[in-house]
Every structure is written in C-alpha cells, then in structure tokens.
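Q: Got a minute? One more chain.
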Amino acid sequence: MSETQTQTYGWNADMDMPLLVKLKTDLKQAMLKKDVAARSAIRQIMAEFPRLTVPITLESGKKSTRLKTSAEITNDDIVGIIQGLAKSERMVLVAKKEESSEYLSILQLYLPRMAGREEIIAWIKENIDFSEYKNKMQAMGAIMKQFGKQADGKMVNEILQKWQ
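A: Always. Here it is, folded:
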C-alpha cells in the first residue's frame, strides 16, 4: 500500500466524524482517484450494513427486525463488521499461506487501536479484585466491558488463564 493511501484513508476514535461519514468520504475519494483496492474494500464494508438490524414487534404481535437507518448505525456496529471481515481475510490468507493482503491492510486502517497485553494486565492489576469472583474467568465480563472492541477476547482469556 502506498504512503498516500495510509494518509488519505482510515479512521480513529479521536476524529470528530463518525466512522460511517468517514467511510462515505473515503469511498468518494477512492472513486475520484480510481483507487480500485480502497474502493472495493470500502464497498465490501458497506455491503455488510444490511446485517445491522433492530428488533421490532409488528401490530399482530409477531416479532421481526428492520434494517438500521444511517442515523442508527454506530461506530461499534461498523467496527464489528470490519473486525469480522478482517478475521475472515486472515483465515483466507492462512489457507493461502500468505502474510498479508492489500485488502486486509485497508480494513485495518478503519479499526481502532487494539489494547496491548501489558495495557490489559496493568488495568486488571489496578481494577480487578479476584476475591470478588468464584473463579478468575468471571472477571472477563468486567474486562471486556472496559476495553470493548479494543481488546481481543482470546488474549484476555489467555491472560486470565495464566493469572496467578
């Protein structure tokens, strides 16, 4: 990926615009620059939006769902979609015995910075009293609530299993 792509595309939580607006802006920019890889990646993210639904109850009492409107789509919704796409791309790359792809590197530009192992351990030491739990794995809920999508659940699980 070129240096201009990393400067042009991407998002982080410190930006003053929602991720949805940034994706739309970047898609327009990619189309104008004829950047096929970025355009395709952003379109793939947006193609997953119909999976975002809200439960509703119809007049007959039957439960159903409806698509979320643009105003209802949150940054966390979109980050979840991108994480899913990145995970499936990593699985494809493992199967193909490749290290990375341009598609994966573009997806990663839109993901928040992940919390590191040391950062998670430091937070646990400061905030978790394991005597409040029957077993240490019960603390996982509090930890994941704190870090949200910025922590890998597998890594948190691994840290708790090795905790003395």
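A: The two ends are 43 Å apart (CA to CA).
Q: Perfect, thanks.
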